[in-house]
Write a structure and sequence with these properties.
The protein is α/β, with parallel strands linked by helices and about 450 residues long. The chain has 20 helices and 15 strands. The strands form 4 sheets. The chain has an 8-stranded parallel sheet. Helix 5 packs across helix 17 and helix 16 crosses helix 17. The longest helix has 19 residues, at about 385-400.
C-alpha cells in the first residue's frame, strides 16, 4: 500500500502561485483569461476587492491640513459681502486647452471588451453631459477598425463613442482626445479623424486633441496588450506580434512600446503641431524615473498637456508582475516633477475627492477617472458616472473650502502633511511636517506665494 505523499510546503513563498505556474506555464504570467473584459486590473489587484483602501499608497496617506488663519477666506468674504461657503468654490478648470466644468476628465479605456462596448458608449455619453474632456485609447482603430457609419455600415467603436459624447456635451465645454502610439501610426488614426466630417464640429470649436501615448502606469516600458481569439489573431498577426502564451483558444496581441529619446519626443510633438494645426497636442508618459525630464521636454516642445500615469494606474490587461512591482508611485512622480511647466494631468486609482485634491495641491491641473468610471457605468449605465463625479465634486468643494481657498489653482503643497515622508526621503529637512520638496524651478516670489497658500 502506497503512503499518500504529503505536498511540500515552503514558508515565505507563494506556494499556490508557484504550483499554478508549474501546471500552466506562461499563462500564469497574466491574470485568468476568463477575467479579460470582465475585470479591470491595477496595483493591489491581489488584495481584497471589497476593501480597496486596505493598501493605501503614499498619496492616500497624506493628510489634508487646514490652517487656523485663512487670508484667502477673508478676501472671499470681502468679495461676496458674506461668509463664504463650500458652494462658492469654483471647480471650473482649463484642461489641456479645453474648458472643463470640473478638474477631472474621462481617461482612456483601451480596446478591451470592458471599455469598447456598451459601457464605453455609456461613459462617453455621461462625460459629455458632465462637460468634462474624454480620452479615447490608442488601439481602438487597429483592433476594431474605423467606420463612419455612413450608408448601411455600423459606426466603429471610436466613432460611436465620439458621437455619443457630442450628443450630450454642451457647446463650448469639454473636448475629445484621441491617443496614438508608435505602432498605431500605421493605422493613421489621427489622419482619419482629422479629415472626417463627423469631427468637424470638434475642430471648429477647438475641442479636438491628439495625445502621443509613450507609456502607461500599469505596464511601464511595454506596449498595448489585448486578448484575442484565433480568428482575430490571424488578422492582427500581419501587423502586430501575436503570442501563444495564454492556453488553448486565446492569443496575446502585443504592440511595440516605441523607442523614445528627448529629441524624438520633441520632433514627434512638433510634427503633431505642424500636421494637425487645429488640434491640441497632449503627451502621456508612464511613471519613469526620469519623469521630470520627460514632462519638461514635452512642455518645451509645445504640448498643451502632459499626462503622468502613476504606477497605480489601471489597465485592461498586463502581466501580474508589472501591476505591483514596476514604475514610480504617483506621489513620487509629482515630487520629481515639482512645480509644473504647463498643464499637468494625473491618473491612477482616482475615484474620490480626497485623492484628487491631494494631486491638485501637488501641482496637477486635473485627474483622470478610468476604472472607477467603468465601474460606475456598469452599476448604472444612465447616471452612474454622473453621480460618481457629483459626489467627487462635493467632496472637493468641501475640502478646498475647509482650506480657506475657493479655486483649484490656489491649492499648494503646504495644504498636505506627510506622516511618513521623513522616512521615505532623506532631504535633510523636516519633510514630515513640511510636505514634499518641490523642484527648484521658481524664484522667491513663487515660494512666498506658496507659503501663503497660493501656487505660482
Amino acid at each position: 500500500m502506497t503512503t499518500p505523499r504529503t505536498p511540500l510546503t515552503a514558508g515565505g513563498l507563494p506556494v499556490a502561485a508557484i504550483r499554478a505556474r508549474a501546471r500552466h506555464g506562461t499563462r500564469e504570467v497574466f491574470p485568468p483569461v476568463a477575467a479579460y473584459g470582465a475585470e479591470l486590473f491595477g496595483a493591489g489587484a491581489g488584495a481584497d476587492a471589497e476593501t480597496p483602501l486596505s493598501l493605501p499608497d503614499e498619496l492616500d496617506r497624506a493628510r489634508i491640513v487646514p490652517p487656523v488663519f485663512m487670508p484667502r477666506r477673508l478676501e472671499k468674504l470681502i468679495e461676496l459681502g458674506r461668509e463664504p461657503l463650500d458652494d462658492d468654490v469654483s471647480l471650473r478648470t482649463a484642461i489641456g486647452g479645453f474648458d472643463s466644468a470640473l478638474p477631472v476628465y474621462l481617461s482612456a479605456f483601451g480596446s478591451t471588451r470592458a471599455g469598447s462596448g456598451d459601457l464605453g458608449i455609456a461613459a462617453s455619453r455621461q462625460a459629455g453631459r458632465l462637460g468634462i474632456p474624454m480620452v479615447i485609447g490608442e488601439n481602438m482603430v487597429p483592433v476594431h477598425g474605423y467606420r463612419t457609419g455612413a450608408g448601411r455600415a455600423a459606426p466603429s467603436a471610436i466613432t460611436a463613442r465620439i458621437r455619443a459624447y457630442l450628443d450630450e456635451c454642451p457647446e463650448g465645454t469639454g473636448g475629445v482626445v484621441v491617443q496614438q502610439s508608435t505602432e498605431d501610426a500605421d493605422s493613421e488614426v489621427w489622419n482619419l479623424l482629422y479629415s472626417d466630417p463627423a469631427t468637424e464640429p470638434l475642430l471648429e470649436s477647438g475641442r479636438l486633441a491628439f495625445e502621443l501615448k509613450i507609456g502607461q502606469g500599469a505596464k511601464p516600458g511595454l506596449g498595448g496588450m489585448t486578448v484575442v481569439d484565433e480568428a482575430d489573431a490571424d488578422r492582427l498577426g500581419r501587423r502586430f506580434a501575436v503570442r501563444d502564451t495564454l492556453g488553448p483558444g486565446s492569443r496575446l496581441r502585443l504592440a511595440s512600446p516605441g523607442t523614445y529619446t528627448e529629441e524624438i519626443v520633441r520632433q514627434q510633438l512638433r510634427f503633431m503641431r505642424n500636421n494637425f494645426p487645429r488640434a491640441r497636442v497632449w503627451a502621456k508618459f508612464h511613471p519613469g524615473r526620469d519623469i521630470a525630464d520627460a514632462a519638461s521636454t514635452a512642455w518645451r516642445a509645445g504640448a498643451d498637456a502632459v499626462t503622468v500615469d502613476g504606477a497605480e494606474g489601471g489597465t485592461g490587461w498586463a502581466p501580474r508582475v508589472f501591476l505591483d512591482h514596476v514604475g514610480l508611485p504617483l506621489a513620487e512622480c509629482l515630487r520629481r516633477v515639482g512645480r509644473p511647466g504647463g498643464c499637468l494631468l494625473v491618473t491612477g486609482r482616482m475615484w474620490e475627492g480626497g485623492r484628487v485634491v491631494r494631486s491638485l495641491a501637488l501641482g496637477a491641473t486635473a485627474a483622470g477617472l478610468g476604472r472607477a468610471a467603468l465601474v460606475a457605468v456598469d452599476e448604472d449605465p444612465e447616471d452612474g458616472l454622473v453621480r460618481l463625479v457629483e459626489a467627487l465634486a462635493l467632496e472637493s468643494r468641501l475640502l478646498i473650502s475647509a482650506l480657506g481657498k475657493y479655486a483649484t489653482d490656489a491649492l499648494g503643497p503646504d495644504d498636505l502633511w506627510w506622516p511618513d515622508r521623513s522616512l521615505s526621503y532623506d532631504t535633510g529637512t523636516d519633510t514630515a511636517a513640511a510636505g514634499p520638496p518641490l523642484a527648484e524651478t521658481a524664484g522667491t516670489t513663487a515660494a512666498t506665494a506658496d507659503r501663503i497658500g497660493g501656487r505660482a
